[in-house]
Amino acid sequence: MPAAANLEYHDMSRQGRCRDVIARWKEKSMEYVKFGRSGLKVSRLAYGLGLRGQEDADEAERAIERAVELGINFIDCANIYGFGDVYETRGTSE
């Protein structure tokens, strides 16, 4: 395939290159395990929201989005964390 034809298959912007690197890293680095008998596969690493400190909602949302970009799909958000506001923050980052 000619070099020019390859360009249509690759996003050459900085954001696109970063997204490609993250996707390759995620494939090689994140391990997934079966979640009981549910048939679901979850990341071996969980992101816990219980001790997330007092950062603002925007910072919390960026942290959650970054965890998801890195392959984390197991997010612990018990209703007692942050007096229940964890659900409000998590809901905005979907």
Rounded to the nearest angstrom, the distance between the terminal CA atoms is: 38 Å
Low-confidence stretches: 1-10
Task: State mean pLDDT (0 to 100 scale).
Answer: 71
How many DSSP helices? 4
Q: Into which percent range does the helicity of residues fall?
A: 40-55%
List the helices and strands in order.
HHEEEHEH
**Total number of β-strand segments?**
4
Describe the global form.
Answer: flat
Radius of gyration: 17 Å
Number of separate domains = 2
Strands in their spatial order, largest beta sheet: 1-2
Strand portion: 5-15%
Describe the model:
- By secondary structure, the protein is mainly alpha-helical.
- The protein has 4 helices and 4 strands.
- It has helices at 3-7, 14-29, 57-69, 85-92, and strands spanning 32-34, 41-43, 47-48, 75-76.
- Strand 3, helix 3 (57-69) and strand 4 (75-76) form a beta-alpha-beta unit.
- The N and C termini lie far apart (38 Å).
- Mean pLDDT is 71; it is low at 1-10.
